[in-house]
Amino acid sequence: GIPKEHSNDERRVSLTPGGVTVLKANGHEIIIEKGAGDEAKFSDHEYAEAGAKIAYNTEDVFKQSELILKVAPISENEIDYLIPNQTIISALHLGNQSAEYFKALTSKSVTGIGYEFICGLDNEFPIVRMMHEITGSISVQIAAHYMESLSGGQGIMLGGISGVPPATVVILGAGITAEYAARTALGYGAQVFVMDNDLAALRYLESALSRRIITAVANTQYLSNALKFTDVIIGAVMANGDRSPCLVTEEMVASMKPGSVIVDTVIDQGGCVATSRATSHSNPIFKVHDVTHYCVPNIPSNVARTATYALNNVLVPYVLAIGDAGGIKECLWDNVALRNGTYAYKNNIT
């Protein structure tokens, strides 16, 4: 079952019509709520052609499904639709969940599997990685847009042209998001600095990008100097299981050039810039010290079609594995990734 996402900022859907075709060919029945793919530009007709049944409300999807595939966590309204022994695969957003959420899952013996905890034997988190790749790439695209004059920026191009030097992009962090931001910024032709306190990660990035970036330890001295001449900051510093470290102070922001742009991609973990605060896709920016801040927590939702294809590519093999095993109970014995992702099972929070 694929219910429609009702969060204002969630435009993704968990399966493409192509994914439905594959699952249908393997003997699965797919029920999708009317309009579930609209925001990602997948029509009900495409899903019906692929073999899905169209349901006209969320409750019908839940009532007819053993397995629910969602993007956002189960909402308060949807909790009432849960049926005993159902399986839910979705994001969990642990920091935002209430005790009632978990009580509802355990009371109905629901198996809950969280996107952000699915992790295989290779220690990779495939869905998290996909979304970080998208976030890194799109963050530079966003910065380029807000550098334009009509968007209140400095009116400069990231890449420059013959005789005009390129913009300078400072990327804070050296993880997956930072790597893809650096690749995209280099593709634009920008001058790219990557700053982190993990020397091993900086070495890896230098090697992966053929030393086309400039790396530095993210200490106060280097940061203060770099931010005086930078045009764009991409905030991508992560701390697993903890708040992101705040590397940029308000004084540093005040020293930046008027019309500069900050894209804080880790705002859902507290952000790594002191002046950052969470915004939304409908109202994405604000200015502090004449510096544009873009701090939307769910950046991949803005490229809903690409993000849906990415989700589909990871989820379809897992659903096939559940079917081949004969159900979620049997599958969890053998599938390490889904077992790691399971947070609720048989009346227990695991």
Provide a brief overview of the structure:
The protein is built from 13 helices and 14 strands. With 350 residues, it is of the alpha/beta class. The model has no long low-confidence stretch (mean pLDDT 94).
**Spatial ordering of strands, largest sheet:** 8-7-6-9-10-12-11
The amount of beta strand, in percent, is 15-25%
Rg calculated over all Cα atoms: 22 Å
Q: What gross morphology would you assign?
A: elongated
Commentary on this structure:
With 350 residues, the chain is of the alpha/beta class. It has 13 helices and 14 strands. The chain has helices at residues 17-25, 44-50, 58-63, 76-79, 99-107, 126-146, 176-188, 199-208, 220-229, 250-254, 304-325, 328-334, 336-341; strands spanning 31-33, 53-55, 67-69, 87-90, 111-114, 168-172, 191-196, 214-217, 232-235, 261-264, 285-288, 291-294, 342-345, 348-349. A 7-stranded mixed beta sheet has the order 8-7-6-9-10-12-11, sandwiched between helices. Helix 6 runs parallel beside helix 7 (176-188). It is elongated and about 60 Å long.
